[in-house]
Amino acid sequence: MSLNYIILRNLKKNIKNYYLYVFALIFSVALYFSFVTLQYDPAMDEVSGSVKGGAAIGASSVLLVAIVAIFLLYANTIFIKRRSKEIGLFQLIGLTKSRIFALLSAENLILYFGSMFAGIGAGFVMSRLILMVLFKILGVDQLAALRFSPEALLQTVLVFVGVYILIMIMNYTFIRAQSILSLFKVTATSQTRIQRMSLWEVVIGLLGIGSICGGYYISGKLFNGTFYGMNALMFAMIAILALVIIGTYLFYKGSVSFLFNLIRRSKKGYLSIQEVLSLSSIMFRMKSNALLLTVITTVSALAIGLLSLSYISYYSVESSARESSPHDYGFLQKADEEGFRKALDQAGIGYTTLEIPTVQMEIDLKQVLDTKNTPGDETSLLATVISDSSLKDVDVQPGEASIMGYTTTKQTMLKLKNKGELDFLTKDGVVKQQLAGLSEESVLPYYFGGGILGVFVVDDSVYQELAQRKDPKEQERVSGDGIYYGLNLTQSSQVKQAYEIYTQQKPELQSFSQYQYEFNQRTNMGLIMFIVGFLGLTFLITSGCILYFKQMDESEEERGGYTILRKLGFTQGDLLRGIRFKQLFNFGIPLIVGLCHSYFAVKSGWFFFGTEMLTPMFAVMGLYTVLYSIFGLLSVLYYKRVIGESL
Questions:
Q1: CA 509, CA 385: separation in Å to the nearest integer?
Q2: Which of 76, 220, 509, 533 lies 20 to 30 angstroms, CA to CA, from 160?
Q3: Neighbours of 504 (CB within 10 A)
Q4: What band does 481 get if pLDDT is binned at 50, 70 and 90?
């Protein structure tokens, strides 16, 4: 029997176990090649807001390589251990360790590089589709061409040859370190089984749940004023990470067993065959995989959280643009506004205009400040004051003042009561007004709102008094003559034409364009969402494969138990019902814990990224859950085959 015959026979025999590994490898290579192709594609010059498209894609490809390399090395560890008895038999029949290593290397060479070149071919086809998706997200009006990049091919081959060399080093080290006897015991000692829970394990279980809940509690207090100052926020964030990560590890190490043990005790030990196959197995196996599950859960939560935040920003682009610039265009200089209007008139573009005089005034908020939920001792701030006569449908009574543009983010950073006295500090003394209401509607660009509170609206008679008694030094904060000139287009179909004119005008002083802000935000956050999405998809597939491979191992170890149960009279359907519950827990517990981690992480600071949380976050979580569930279904199908072959 020649060595070539052994290699081909082993490939044919093991291909049914390697198919998901091959798929994951092809997918990873295809995605990496597509990413690198985008990096060298001239069309990426169009994707350049404040973030350079090609550079961002290149940086993300490094993270992609790290994810794929770790996955391939871990998967190789699982497969080399599964073949330990086979390696031992080769030694028994007289093959040297060097010969065995050469045999395994040849098998891996065929499997690995065959998959790699198949992945490159798939990546070449996918690159145009991915570029089309990216252009669609960013709103770039350009044709995505299919282009082969020799630079991308060379970089992909070099990277994955490097990963292959690492795999060979790992295999060589494993074969050299094992004796014939130890090779037959590798799989037998891979899992730890414990018959009953000790008091220490109960304590660990409670500590795990308590640590996670503690991290969630602190995250809810992160930006509500409990922690004031950079150092306090930093320590709070470190505490959250430590509590959640350590708590997750302890949860898998003891909490799962503790909770399932309570269920078992509530039934007084009388478990059905389905409960034996699901609860009992998970109670003792999940703790041996605690570190792996902690890493998968933590990185899953990170991927879901980052993708949710980026999608929140992308989803909220239009509303964020209206908050930052409530009018289509705004100017601080009359000459700039007049020049822009003349250009619009020449182009036949319709518009409406408005003027809003402003006064910069220091205001004492001591009587309306919610001191319980607001950090610091400072109670006064410099803000913009306008007259109600400058706004439509806004009427403020004399002696009263309203705050407009008091958005969710500002409400979180600075809590105010609904009623109370406001002190307007002029150069001649104090003008007292009563707070009449708070509104999230923005009436002036972010430039005037100051980013801390909003714009104060008072009765016109009060405004005239404040304008006469204003402090000239405080007016220096705003450029121009203190008057805001707003302009709204009457036809939405002329937005792009008007923006082209605006970019040609190049106003001397600061001006505001809602369309420009929306375009920049959509470009930046769309690119980030695209990159995070594909990195998250890669991690989802690799982590799902790892859990699937672990289930393959467990099913082979439990094959003998299934044979006994079948001989005792239990049908294949009886066993499969228990297996379905088992996989529901095996894949469901890490998924649910990861979703909870990401939910509380996003909930603590989503308002910095957009104006809507639930819809984009649940969309991301739903998609992740559906894709993740596919691996649970595949594991059930594999168990079904093992149970069918057990008798």
A1: 21
A2: 533
A3: 9
A4: confident
Instruction: Yes or no: say if 443 and 405 are a contact pair by the CB < 8 Å rule.
Output: yes
Euclidean distance between CA atoms 280 and 256, whole angstroms: 11
Three-state SS for 369-402 is ECCCCCCCCCCEEEEEEEEHHHCCCCCCCCCEEE
Angle at which helix 290-315 crosses helix 514-557, to 10 degrees, equals 160
Locate 122 and state its tokens.
């798939």
Q: Which stretch of 278-282, 362-366, 613-617 has the lowest confidence by average pLDDT?
A: 278-282
Closest of 450, 444, 511, 455 to residue 477, by C-alpha: 450
Q: Which two tokens stand for residue 94?
A: 């007289």
Q: Could you tell me which residues come within 8 angstroms of residue 550 by beta carbon, excluding any fewer than 6 positions away?
A: 78, 289, 292
Of 133 and 59, the structure prediction assigns the larger pLDDT to 133
The whole-angstrom separation of Cα 561 and Cα 556 is 10
Q: Which two tokens stand for residue 11?
A: 């490939």
Higher-confidence position of 180 and 424:
424
Q: Which of 554, 547, 621 is closest to 590 using CA atoms? A: 547
What is the 8-class DSSP label of residue 327?
S
Q: What percent of the chain has pLDDT over 90?
A: 19
Tell me how far apart the alpha carbons of residues 187 and 82 are, in angstroms, rounded to a whole number: 7
Q: Report d(CA 16, CA 413) in Å as an integer.
A: 57
Rounded to 10 deg, the angle between the 572-605 and 199-220 helix axes is 40
Q: Are 390 and 355 in contact (CB under 8 A)?
A: yes
Q: What pairs with residue 434 in β-bridges?
A: 400, 421
CA dist list (Å): 417 to 99, 372, 421, 511: 79, 11, 10, 33
Name 402's bridge partners. 437, 457
Residue with token string 């990401």: 598
Residue 50 reports pLDDT greater than 50: no
Task: Give the Cα separation of 208 and 213 in Å (integer).
Answer: 9
Q: What residue spans of 221-255 are helical by DSSP H?
A: 230-250
Q: Which helix (H) or strand (E) holds 520?
A: helix 514-557
Q: Environment class of residue 190 by beta-carbon count within 10 Å: exposed (0-12), middle (13-18) or buried (19+)?
A: middle
Would you say 546 and 70 are in contact if contact means Cβ atoms under 8 Å apart? no
- Give the model's pLDDT for residue 493: 87
Place of tokens 């390589």: 65
Q: Which two tokens stand for residue 554?
A: 């467990």
Task: Give 217's contacts (C-beta < 8 A, 6+ positions apart).
Answer: none
Between the two ends of the chain, the Cα-to-Cα distance in Å is: 32
Token digits of residue 209: 């749940």
**Total count of residues recorded for the chain:** 647
| Backbone CA torsion sign across 505, 508, 514, 518 | positive
How many whole angstroms separate alpha carbon 364 and alpha carbon 30? 60
3-class DSSP state for residue 512? Answer: strand
Query: Are the beta carbons of 519 and 605 closer than 8 angstroms?
Result: no
- β-strand partners of 364: 380, 423
